[in-house]
Design brief:
Blueprint (H helix, E strand, L loop, with lengths): L7 E2 L5 H8 L7 H9 L7 E4 L17 E5 L9 E5 H4 L8 H16 L5 H14 L14 H4 L7 E8 H9 L8 H4 L3 E7 L13 E4 L6 H6 L7 H4 L4 E6 L11 E5 L4 E7 L8 H12 L2 H5 L14 E7 L3 H9 L3 E12 L2
Parallel strand pairs: 10-11
Antiparallel strand pairs: 1-2, 2-3, 3-4, 5-12, 6-11, 6-12, 7-8, 8-9, 9-10
Length: about 350
């Protein structure tokens, strides 16, 4: 059994090194890759890796399995951990790598457990979410009660992992780290759609009566009421967004009739068109606008990304619930290809 599975803190100076290390594993590791690029690191956020980038010897061999993760426990109840591992991109033909991968995962869980959570902050978020009385479902997607996303907030030993590759989910399940009470959430597969941004991605004109804009913070309650996934205002305000507004409104500050964001990991997220305005291709228009005008935001935060048109930088992505046929149709109309499945899972730090 391998013993050299120590996890290392990736310093701010070594973040470009981690990006360069991940580049050959794109697009499989795109969620972690983009999250590091986006920046906005808080004092309590961490990057962990089995590769010691502060050591000239790098601490591991390219041929040996590795794992890396971004951790921010203050994001609760949103995604707290994004991770990537070598076996997700190129799974070895035999099972000799599994014992070593198991040890890497256990070491990573141990490292994440050392990251504390401010109990008062968790209580404040739960109180705020429950007081809004927001809708718990979204049209066309997996109908999961909002409480399923909030109930673990009182227990700091439970952490939400996002966009987890199916191969890593198998390891987490086998090792007993997946919260057994969260099956209704953890067992929902999401299709990872990838978009090649070099394929003539250009925004297009809107039909008469509509105009582009950004999502105004005053409309965050409306945005959050249309999704079952909790969103914090402090997160939304950081994200690139596009909204569509009616031009014939009598209000000086009209509400949007459609909107979309790029997430912390640059995924197309919170895409929504109000029911009365569907059928005009607005979801596709929003997506093209974001892809063509906002993706460079992520590269600009990372000094290692000097060529926006490089192979690594050409991809955008979206995670779509397996029963969300409408969003799957939008992704496919944008030229998106479904590559693999990912999951949002609650992990018990035992």
């Amino acid at each position: 059994m391998a013993t050299d599975t120590e996890m290392f803190d990736v310093s701010s100076d070594s973040r470009p090194d981690l990006i360069r290390w991940l580049a050959p594993y794109m697009p499989t590791c795109i969620a972690l890759y983009r999250r590091i690029q986006f920046g906005h690191f808080k004092p309590g956020s961490h990057l962990f890796s089995s590769i010691n980038f502060d050591s000239p010897a790098r601490g591991t061999s390219v041929s040996r399995p590795w794992i890396a993760a971004f951790v921010d426990r203050s994001c609760r109840p949103e995604t707290e951990v994004w991770l990537a591992a070598s076996w997700e991109h190129d799974t070895p033909a035999d099972d000799t790598w599994l014992p070593y991968a198991d040890e890497l995962v256990k070491s990573m869980i141990k490292k994440i457990k050392e990251v504390g959570v401010d109990p008062s902050e968790a209580e404040s978020i739960v109180s705020s979410e429950k007081s809004t009385g927001l809708s718990s479902t979204i049209n066309g997607s997996a109908s999961v009660d909002r409480d399923h996303y909030l109930q673990h907030m009182q227990n700091e030993q439970v952490v939400l992992f996002g966009s987890v590759h199916s191969s890593t989910l198998k390891i987490l399940n086998r090792l007993g780290f997946v919260d057994p009470t969260s099956a209704e959430v953890s067992n929902i597969p999401y299709r990872k759609y990838l978009f090649d941004l070099r394929d003539n991605v250009e925004c297009r004109s809107l039909p008469a009566g509509f105009v582009y804009g950004r999502v105004n913070p005053k409309d965050y309650p409306l945005v959050k009421s249309r999704t079952q996934i909790p969103r914090q205002d402090r997160t939304l305000v950081k994200l690139p967004s596009v909204a569509i507004y009616p031009t014939d409104s009598s209000s000086t500050t009209p509400s949007p009739i459609a909107w979309a964001f790029l997430g912390l990991d640059a995924s197309l997220t919170t895409l929504h068109v109000e029911t009365a305005c569907r059928g005009f291709g607005l979801a596709k228009s929003l997506s093209l606008k974001l892809f063509s005008e906002e993706m460079e935001t992520y590269c600009q935060h990372n000094p290692a990304s000097t060529d926006y048109n490089s192979v690594q930088e050409r991809y955008a992505h979206a995670d779509v619930a397996i029963d969300n046929k409408a969003s799957q149709g939008v992704c496919e109309s944008l030229g998106g290809r479904w590559y693999f499945e990912v999951f949002w899972i609650r992990v018990v730090l035992v």
